[in-house]
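Researcher: If convenient, please comment on what follows.
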Amino acid sequence: MKQRRAHLEIMGMSCSTCSGSVEDAVAALEGVEEASANFATDEGTVAYDPAEVSLADIYDAIEDAGFEAAAETRTITVLGMSCATCSTAVGDALEDRSGVIRADVNFASDEARVTYNPADVSLAELHAAIEGAGFEPVSEETEGDESQRERAVEKELRRQRRLLIGGGLLTLPFVPMMFGMLFELAGVASPIPMAIAHPPGWLEFVLATILMATLGKEFIQGAYRAFSHDRRANMDTLVAVGTSAGYVYSVAVLGGVLVGGLYFEAVAFILWFITLGNWLEVRSKARAGNALRQLLEMEADEATVVRDGEELQVPLEAVEPGDVLKIRPGEKIPTDGVVREGQSAVDESMLTGESVPVEKGEGDEVVGATINENGVLLVEATKVGSETAIQQIVERVKEAQSRQPEIQRLVDTVSAYFVPAVIVNAVFWATVWLLAPELLFGVSSWLGSWIPVLEPVGGGPVDAAPGGVPVLEFAVVVLASALLIACPCALGLATPAATMVGSTLSATNGVLFKGGDVLEQVRGIDTIVFDKTGTLTHGEMVLTDVELVGERAATDGGTDATPDGGVLEPPSSGEDALESFVLGAAASAESGSEHPIARAIVEGADDRGVEIGGVSEFENVPGQGVRAKTDRGTVLIGRRKLLEDSGIDTGPAEGPLTRLEREGKTAMPVAIDGELQGVLAVADEVRESARETAAALLERGSEVVMLTGDNERTARAVAEQVGIDPDNVRAEVLPEDKADHVEELQAGGARVMMVGDGVNDAPALTTAQVGVAIGSGTDVAIESADVTLMRDDPADVLKAVRISEATISKVRQNLFWAFIYNTTLIPIASLGLLNPALAGLAMATSSVSVMTNSLAFAKYDPHEDYQLAVTKPLSWFRR
């Protein structure tokens, strides 16, 4: 293959060392012939052989080196795809274009999600690639907008409706004929007059010809496009060949070239039945996308902005970050923001799926499109336009729908060979019927003796049964039936239809999956690892205890503290005064930290009226505590190890430390100027749903593990409250070491889901098979997490697991029936036991049934385990 050259814009390079790192990382890839990077211009050039290395691999190498290459992602609506083979053709055409990093094409949603290098390929060239594959990209000024797909689907629905109605009128004259045939097959005298039941052959020819020129034209053109562009065969090929065979044979009989019956009525019913199926399929696709569209429609159209004391009604697009919005009871909150004044309950059911309103007050975050229930709120807008949570959710769902589960690879592989195999099978059996009709008729008749419904069409060929039909005619019937009964649509729709509904369902319940592949991975998880603070607990620490230790703890009498060289001396007596002094020193030291424990100490001192002094030097010791120079002296507060490393004996504090830790509190010794002075304790309340969640996961057979930076005693006390086995508690774990513990579990054969806050836990989230960021609120774009939970409730982990299991079960259910349908009916048609018209009806019904089955899944409630009616037959898919 010809060498390609990629021109990249690379962000993050600050020196020649950076550019060298990029060059080395890319040049190390097999197939890269030249790599250069210039940090001064933030540009890079790569010459590579696309047969050996992909552009996606180059981008991954740059990312692994710690830098980022510019890329854009577009969602393009594609019309004309009729099966999985079509979506594969579109994907291949896009990925063959220089500059395209990856392309995911979803047949169920009629969309292609393309990530590309804007320096090497344009949107117009992407459209040209799709057109080159024989399909129609929707090109409008609103490219990428959800309304684009909606208009395209409505356009296709109108077109299919016109074909359906027009074709139905042309097929109507054949209905009495079909009923007459059914009466004859049943051995009952037909009440339909002969002239109506058997119209003139020329009339049948005229009607069938018009149908072939209208409805049939759709399939013939689709088959021609597939074959002429990349020598592929698709569903259109099966319909085109099957109907053409019946039509041409009937024309030959009508013209006296051959002797036999006419099959114009079968051609008519086949084309109309399949057109009916296409219309129902497009209608189902539109319904599948409704939930996402309705989510966007929940946004407010206008906002009340308060500017210079005046209230103004402005369009939502005119709201800017920093604007103060007034939201009255019953109104939608226009955009994401922070409450500045007021108190109210907000209905966030559209975001989380929970019907109970959430109380909001000053300082609380609110999300656009949620509904203010009962109070007036003044909200400062923080995110607008595409940055709002609802827009990010929609984008996340689109991304999820474009990434299919691993099981889809099996389906794609089968689909690639399915249509050619069906054509070969049909030709083979038609030929065998021509050469050995007596033998096959014997087999067909034997089947009919066991299953009376399965009788050879027309009584069998004349060479095998008196009163049958000519052998050539029978062979044509077998050819048409064997082609038309096969349904690649059902196979192609099985996975994307279910994942499309599942990802939308999860989004409306506050659970965002990065892709269908993540849905599949969650289903196989057997170990769930929870971070403690902010996940199993509220993460809102409260100062509970201040205890004195050391020589001054038992002293009495003395004076207030006085300045001495700028440093306050501790009081020589008075337990309350000494406690205030120690707490004030600790609060002063912690005032420079944003850690939840630090905030609890500072707020606790403020609530007790303790003065918080200044800090001249501050050092945060990760995972240990803080060291700070304050106006009360040099303060050390944190773990025992922090003090012991500084030569301070923590033995005198061991008693209160142990007692407080057994109570489930986080206890920390405090030293001032090298002397142990006291112990402070903070407590974090366990979430109400944590125990129920852990119990439910354990009941499902999952292992539940807790990681925390707290000491062993505190960790075990919290684990006991939650119901986690003490042996599954990992305490005193530094943030950077959490990933190591996850790796250790995975090395032992566990499939791990890590649940954390998405910030300190990022390495562990990335290391685990599935990373879950909990309580993300308006910040839904967390790159390190595979699953994002909009609420800070661990119960939503159960939702994620249940939705995953339900979606993949629905995928397997769809695939099971699609495979059963094809493997059962293709042999029946091949043995001449199925009328071509009924084969066309069965083909249309199978794809519609897959979409209907998937749409029924939208009613699933993830608060309960999913009950799948058919489970045992699906076990072979799990291999």
